[in-house]
Prior knowledge:
Layout: H1 10-17, H2 31-34, H3 40-60, H4 72-84, H5 87-119, H6 121-135, H7 143-150, H8 154-178, H9 182-190, H10 195-230, H11 238-247, H12 251-279
Amino acid sequence: MSISHAPPHPSDAAGTAKLPASPTLQRLVPASSRRTRLPRWLRRTTGPLALLVLWQVLSSTGELAPGVLASPGRITQVAGDLIADGSLPSAMGISLQRVAAGLLLGTVVGTGLALISGLFRIGEDVVDAPVQMLRTVPFVGLIPLFIIWFGIGETPKIAIITLGVTFPLYLNVYAGIRGVDTQLIEAGESLGLSRWGLVRHVVLPGALPGALTGLRYSLGIAWLALVFAEQVNADSGIGFLMVQARDFLRTDVIVVCLIVYAFLGLLADFIVRSLERLLLRWRPTFTGR
């Protein structure tokens, strides 16, 4: 008795003869990348331009009285007059000198205290508590004391700016130092780095992002402190122009001075951000989508 097998079905034979088709690869693109985007400079200027147009419309229709707020056209004309007679450039130069002096002193003091407090435990015990107490006192409230101590010259104005700059820089540099990963410290020690080598090659680079963030905060507070300092017993600077304009109810001059303050603040912040991109190229970060 012989056993015979039935011949395979034609469809089965064809199926075994065919090789499976290779899958088609399709690149996945995030939805945010498929959206059509406007240029970034256009997106950043849309909000201010819309506000400017609304301002001009309200002024042209009389909804915004000139005594309350001058129109953009009037402000542009006044700005041109102040630049032509030299009063605005001269005031800007004096104000910039005050901010530069206060920022330099505040950076030295704030960074020095942060290094002492961040690198040494005994330094933290001695320095941190008094600094934390002083930073809770509004620096604007110290203006009367500074006038009594230093007079009405340039010294109290620079002292106010210095005080405003010191504390945010101290906090950010201190947090940057204490935020350095201990594994990096241990790796540096295993490589034979000395204490100074650890500070130079590990701690300070790790604290640099925090220091630059603190510098940006300090710049903003420096301009705020300048506004208060130049409102009190000043005979020059942008704040002095504002005081004179207030006495004569010149809202157009006041707005021009405020725009100059804002422009100088944005310019300083742009410089620090450019410096941040230059110094932190080794540190890739998320920049948004």
